[in-house]
Design goal:
Keywords: Hydrolase. By secondary structure, this protein is an alpha/beta fold. About 30% of the residues lie in helices and about 15% in strands. The structure holds SN-glycerol-3-phosphate and magnesium ion.
Amino acid sequence: MAMTDDWLYPLWIAHRGAGKLAPENTLAAFRIGAAHGYRAFECDVKLSADGVPFLLHDATLQRTTPERGTAGERSWSELSRLDAGGWHSRAFAGEPIPSLEAIAAYVLRNGFALNIEIKPTPGQELETGRVAAREAARLWAASRHAPVAPPLLSSFRPESLQGARETAPELPRALLLDTLWNGWFDIARALDVRACITNHALMDAALIAQLHGAGLRALVYTVNDPAEAQRLLALGIDGIITDAVDRFAPGDSLRD
Ligand code: G3P
Ligand code: MG
C-alpha cells in the first residue's frame, strides 16, 4: 500500500510539552517547548470521574501533585485546583493541570500539531478512547478552516484506539509499542492506524521497511541522545518524540 502524502506532522515532537524543562503535561511546558521552536507536542490524556479529558501521565496523583490516590476517581472540579507545578520547581508552583480543551485552545491558536496519547486509568481503556476522540473531534472542528493538522490519537492500548475509532474514525490513530508483542502488526492493521510509534531502541531498517511497506508512518519515543537521533534520521524515521527540546532544534535538519 502506498503512503499517502497527507501526513501533516513535523518531524520533531516535544514530549509532554517540554520534556523535563518544565512540569510535564502543563501549559507552561508547552510554552517552553514552543519557545525552543517546537511546533508539535505530545501529551498524555485521561478522564476525570465526571468524564472530562485532562492531561496527566500517571494513574495516580502523588508524583506530580500534592495529593495521593487515583486521579481518575476525582472530579474535574477537584483536579483543576491542584498544583501540578510545585513538584518540579518553585518557579512553576501553582501551575494547574490543564484540560484537553485548554491545551487545544493553545495549540490551535498557534497553529501547532498535537499528538494526544490516550493514557487511560486502568479499566477505562475503551471509554477513555471514546471520550478523548469525541472531544478532540469537537475541539478541532471548531477551527476547521485554520491550516492545522488534526490531532494524532495514539495509545499503547488497542482498546483505546478502538474506542477512538468508534467515535471519531476520521481522526488519525497511532499504535504505541514498547515491545513488539505477538500480533502487533495485525492489530495495527485491524485498527486502521496511520502510524506506529515505538520505543526508539526497537526501530531499525527492517521495522521501518515493514511499516512503510504497509503504508504506515514510523515514529519513535523518547530520543534524547544526538547519536541515536542521527541513527534514526539516517534510517528515514518519520517522527521523533523528545524531551531534549533544548538540544534538538526542530528547524535544523540533522539529515544533512
Ligand atoms: O507517546 C510516547 C510516549 O509518551 C510514551 O511513553 O510513558 O512517556 O507516555 P510515556
Ligand atoms: Mg506519553
